[in-house]
Amino acid sequence: MNYPDLKKARIRTDKEVEYKENPMVSGTKFLEKKYFLRTYGCQMNEHDGEQMASILEHLGMSACDDLEKSDVIVLNTCAIRENAHDKVFGYLGRIKHLKKTRPDVIVAIGGCMSQEEGVVENLKKHHPYVNIVFGTHNIHELGSMLLDAASEKQDIEVYSIEGDVYEHIPYKRASEITAWVNIIYGCDKFCTYCIVPYTRGKERSRHLDEIVSEVEALKNRGYMEVTLLGQNVNAYGHDLKEKVEFSELLEAVAKTGIPRIRFVTSHPWNFTDKMIEVIAKYDNIMPYIHLPLQSGSDRILKLMGRKYTKNEYLDLFHKMKSQIPNVSITTDIIVGFPGETESDFESTLEVVEECKFDGAFTFIFSPREGTPAAKMKDDTPLEEKEERLKRLNERINFYSKESNKRLVGHITPVLVLGESEKDSTKVYGYTDTMKLVNVKAPKNTIGKIIDVKITDAKSFSLDGEINEKIHS
Ligand code: 5AD
Ligand code: SF4
User: Fold this and answer.
1) pLDDT value, residue 404
2) 282 lines ligand 2 (CB under 6 A)
3) pTM above 0.90, yes or no
């Protein structure tokens, strides 16, 4: 048994990162059994879920989307805000019920919530029917933990460590068209509200040649798009023995010739001119940047530990807009950070009015146990925070629709990902600028980049029709 320890999880040393081969386990205990896997949270977690699925299938299981009919249940959890916890504990209610009639079902909880002390205490005390708790640092052990699992004993293996890098991880990828590729794990920024540096360890980059060969292999298998993943993609490479810049990695990935490259998430703090130059230079690097603002108030940004001011953010934003043709920029904003006043909030609104973001994810501050902001005095009533969120969303949605409306009548390339769920005469896909489009087009366009004439704009999507030319 190993329990999480948030104090340990905070520690950063200059201990060298170990690069290890990913171990795979096999066994016959689960042959022909069914697994139910549910993933919550960010793209990083989705991608971890693809690793978990691969481990489960390696043991001979097949996926099942009916909880009641599954033999193994895995919840891949998220800890970013309290409502992510609530969803998981809500789901555990259903599982508890199922365990009463089928005690042989094995339940495993992984992901970021498992890295939290309070959560594991809660699972031990109130959810003893959960068989396995594993963390973000030992996903590769899920297979062996399952093989060892006995229904009467809870096995908890969560490591609060800086972390290693595993290579040649097998994934059961959710799509055959777009793929995620990890480039840097962990986070060292320690924004005061954020639990991620505690749940995912220190910043550790994969070697450039490993990333490039993964992208090449994906391209050879017919993948059309890769999204390079990291909590801070632009911190890539600073921790490697031979330092590499994110711009160099981007350029090397662009040269593989894979049709589309995206990357998330960028931090406004160390986004260099060279990165902007490379994004502008290569046609296969998509003109789309997710650039979290969090707040437009310098006082709050400082309390958040974000390392930039409102003006520095705006300068970077305008530089991107002027140097990357047709770029779309989206953001994340937190309202109701401890001590945020109406005037702080208005500074955030000012940035929104100036940047006219293509889209944004907006959140009410959620205190995370163990983070500095959770201990800060917070006397703004929830109703006031909700009212600020509503005002903010109204402006965000307005500008999102405006940016969509500007595309009406234009022809734009769309990578088609699948059949529309609502209308079988339509397919859906994304523009280079990451806008969702429902297109009147035949199904044989799936997996291809097609020219689409945009006919209508909504707040969160576009409508369009195929405009003859198919690129590839
Ligand atoms: N409360 C509210 N939102 C948060 N985020 C991260 N931590 C918190 C928190 N404690 C938001 C940030 C981040 C996004 C992924 O989630 O905006 O960019
Ligand atoms: Fe969290 Fe800040 Fe790291 Fe993003 S940069 S994961 S918000 S600590």
Assistant:
1) 97
2) no
3) yes
